[in-house]
Amino acid sequence: MRGPLLLVLGDSLAFHGPERGEPADEPRLWPNVAAAGLGGRAVLVAGIGWTARHAWHALTRDPRVWAVMPKVDALVLGVGGMDTLPSPLPTALRELIPVLRPDRLRRAVRAGYQRAQPGLSRAFAVLPGGGPVALPPRLTVGYLEQCRQAVHAIRPGVPVVAALPSVHRASVYAGVHAGRAAAERATREWAAGAGVALLDLPALVGDHVLSGQGNPDGMHWGWPAHAAVGAALAELLEPELGE
Q1: Sign (positive/negative) of CA torsion 3, 7, 137, 23?
Q2: Above 60 in pLDDT, residue 36?
């Protein structure tokens, strides 16, 4: 008899360790820690900088997801944190940088934006609401709800877990995270209405990240944080999957 299958839609926090990005089957990553604790396995579909919108696109466009959908026992929406990061350049324009041509132009624009981003993040943080973010909270929870509904249309009643946005001390954003509080409020409100359980990432990894114990980039986690998040996720899911 097989154990539970977790479909995890995530951002880079799901597959980056203390030094680098890791293969999706690295057992110390939090999705795999949770799955092992439940006696099952995790299918991780994730990308660098993924927002809730990217998760929705993966759910609807990636045939790897379609292949596992009939067997999914739980949906984990490990996205939403990157949505809260400062985005001085509108997201639609920023995501066009990798496709600029010629190569010399692309490299110049990328380098210029990376140099400007910390200062612009600080400058925009004084605006009402803390300035522009990668994805506004209303859109984040809208895409999360679309993901929940889509999976429940195929697998009615499977438990869904989402994550509160994590914290960071990343120099590339000058430590600015003015959009996090509003995103947390929106996520909590949506989850309460939709019957979705929440992983409280700030409570689980906040001290680890802010004290500098994680990845030197100030955003990603060390293995103790992955272990804590994985154990908390397994604890959330165990009562429902046990039924």
Answers
A1: positive
A2: yes
